[in-house]
Design brief:
2 strands; two-stranded antiparallel ribbon; globular; about 50% helix; mainly alpha
């Protein structure tokens, strides 16, 4: 197992560990977006969104492009888009008692 493979999985896991980052990635699967547009889809504050976008950028999952005073965010690659599509399309065989992940008891 290569150190690069482990690093990639660790970065991907870090990105997916937070529900806000999950939502950002899902929105960006549809195409590039600006922070104000992301806020329409994601219930959080602007500073919190900025922190999560910085995390995703630092993990290498999103990239930015400056357009004047605005910054546009997009997935880092088409391969990442395909990987996310495959991931959300998985059919999971969830064991009894594990069906409440991410929900309050």
């Amino acid at each position: 197992m290569s150190p690069t493979a482990l690093s990639t999985l660790e970065r991907f896991g870090t990105a997916l560990a937070d529900p806000i980052r999950q939502r950002i990635l899902l929105v960006l699967m549809s195409g590039p977006s600006y922070p104000n547009d992301l806020l329409v889809h994601i219930e959080t504050s602007q500073p919190n969104l900025s922190n999560h976008l910085a995390c995703l950028r630092g993990c290498g999952l999103v990239r930015t492009e400056r357009e004047g005073r605005r910054v546009r965010y997009e997935l880092a690659s088409e391969r990442l888009r395909h990987a996310l599509e495959d991931l959300v399309g998985l059919e999971l065989d969830i064991e009894p008692g594990h069906d409440t992940i991410g929900q309050s008891p």
